[in-house]
Design brief:
Elements: H1 19-47, H2 52-74
């Protein structure tokens, strides 16, 4: 015998299969509303409105995030 080493290829330590995709999807779904919400908050400050564009920014960011996730990972 040549030893007790396993001849199967070893996976690298760290992320399991699909975990990197899950982290990517989660970061996209969080970053979109946060980014567009901050932009809306800034527009609210410039225009002088009270959280109108903040809400619009969060909704637009969420919709765009879902679209990006669908376009990147949802199509087969």
């Amino acid at each position: 015998m040549t030893g007790t080493r396993d001849s199967r290829p070893r996976r690298p330590l760290g992320l399991v299969e699909g975990e990197n995709v899950a982290w990517s999807v989660m970061s996209i779904l969080v970053a979109g509303p946060v980014l567009y919400g901050l932009i809306g908050w800034g527009v609210d400050g410039l225009v002088g409105t009270n959280r109108v564009f903040l809400g619009l920014g969060v909704v637009v960011g969420l919709v765009l995030s879902f679209y990006i996730v669908y376009a990147r990972y949802g199509r087969t």
